[in-house]
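Justification of computing resources. Each target in the renewal requires a structure prediction run like the one illustrated here; the chain below, 440 residues long, is used simply to show the kind of job we budget for.
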Amino acid sequence: MFSAIARIFRTPDLRQKILFTIGIIALYRMGSNVPAPFVHFPNVEQCLAANAGTEGLLGLVNLFSGGALLQLSIFALGVMPYITATIITQLLRVVIPHFETLHKEGQAGQAKLTQYTRYLTIALALLQSTTLVTVARTGQLFGTTDVAACQNLLTNDVWWAQLLIIIAMTAGTGLIMWFAEMVTERGIGNGMSLLIFTSIAATFPSAMWGIWEARGFETFLLVLIIGIIVMGLVVFVEQSQRRVPVQYAKRMVGRRTYGGTNTYIPIKVNMAGVIPIIFASSLLYIPMLVAQFNTPTDGSEPPAWVTWVSQYFTTGDHPLYMAAYFLLIIGFTYFYVAITFNPVEVADNMKKYGGFIPGIRAGRPTAEYLDYVITRITFPGSLYLGIVALIPLVALATVQANQNFPFGGASILIIVGVGLETVKQIDAQLQQRHYEGLLR
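Resulting structure tokens:
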């Protein structure tokens, strides 16, 4: 293992790519700790010390930004606008035929879709930064906390100061997008995925230290052991796939024979990735957000529905919330897989190039068979996603650990997925140069 790492740094171009990637990650983390203009940073730190405002979607966004959201830094929005824009662009392929046509045009169409995604990212960044500044100005960023400092997060709340904060956060999102593209082009791995990986990994030490301080060494050790077991199981499931065999018929072109090869279609158990968890968290955050804005500020009794939402859909440790979260993840998993994997398109491409599944006729029977396989394999994949997503909520309910429990939910899925993909890319580049990779 150590000899393989030494070979990485003895290879000039690979060493340059890795050092460039590390440099971009360092700049990204530095920007995540630079406060936006007109932000009263001592008050922000005092509110963060009170451990307030980390529930639901807000906690998820704060996790993806590496804690920059609640610090109101120039990189406060993190990668969430880009992730949201990418998901919207994928969903629009089903609704808008032009987007589907661009998707099928190859590299030129993909470049056009990428351009649309960038424009949508900036638009979403403007919207989200405006919302964030408005919530921070009204003192609701950290929820209904009694800490006085949380009501005075901005040093100046006139319109031009708020506009400057919005411009700074939007520009920060554009800079993050440029960082990610530079890493993809000149570094190692997928740039946006690595920045997400960095943001989540940056919260691990503080989360573990918080568990040690709040619950003691025994709970810390128990969480660490559970984390290692969960990580091993996630690696096992993420690598699991159903291989559907495919054969290509032989054909003669002149005097040469083409085809006649055997291959397979790899269908992963978890084809949806972390997207269903993001969808479910976003949907469950809506009732809490609506109830928060309908809570009376004069101390009077809130409406009955606001009290009900606050009781069952705020902290996340109630069985009703967990059940709704679990069922939504299962539903969104089937929904997202149905959008991203088109059995009819795969069957048509196989038929076009003379491919067939042994024992299955080409065309419509192949599409029906692939749809049957996808439906069956998505069920354990959705259960797996639901169980992994519930780990932080169960930890919150049992040992009263932080809801942003480091070894569960979206965090562990992204950490493992991006880590495996990056290691595979380094291994492939090593094999090209030394005929011996990082993995054995």
